Amino acid sequence: MNDSGQFYLDIIVSASLPVKVVMIILILASIWSWLIIFSKGKVLTEAQKNAKKFEEHFWSGVDLNKLHQQINSKKVTGIARIFTAGFTDFQRKKSSGQITINSVESADRAMRVALNREIESLESQLPTLATIGSTSPYIGLFGTVIGIMLSFHALSDVTQATIALVAPGISEALIATAMGLFAAIPAVIFYNRFSDKVERIYTQYDAFKDEFSAILHRQIGD
Fold it and tell me: Which of 24, 160, 194, 201 lies 20 to 30 A from 43 at CA?
């Protein structure tokens, strides 16, 4: 470890208990946010890739019954789950001889429920990122205030105040602020990035649902 790293480590280790507690909270918050960032980034990337792959296969002219049979026995997610929900509901109505406009509406509702569940799953843990991003600076600021208060309180026990007496306390206080920003900035950046990705995935899912509903409408006409 270089001298600057050792310097910061010494300040953290020698910090007063309240400031040290704040620092520990911020370190845990930062670790938690990065775990969410890596896991959610992977999930959203996979969702986009799988959606593109399924749509390419769907619009390649594959027989819908065969496609349904291929994926119905699997645990599917994303657009495949939306397709399965709508097609299963439509086929159930068709097998009972109740093919009407209401059959398509029923399938559309089933797809809407599946779509909402998929988006809800993709949005999970994003509120945690938002919370970390919005609260970490204030937690760091709280540690800063405590550190400065303790530094000035220590001056009451001495007859002559010097910068050397307050410098350690102010240093640990400012590090608490820096740690708050260190935890908050990545959380805010990736929250906004992931929210945008989820919105684009929702648009893609919703467009597919509408297009598939139109296909089912045409089957009634046929």
Answer: 24
7-60 pLDDT per residue, tens: 556 666 666 778 788 888 999 999 999 999 999 999 999 999 999 999 999 998
Cα dihedral 33, 35, 41, 46 sign: negative
**Distant-in-sequence contacts of 42-47, Cβ < 8 A, 24+ apart:** 43/122, 44/122, 44/194, 44/197, 44/198, 44/201, 47/77, 47/78, 47/122, 47/201
| pLDDT score recorded for residue 17 | 78
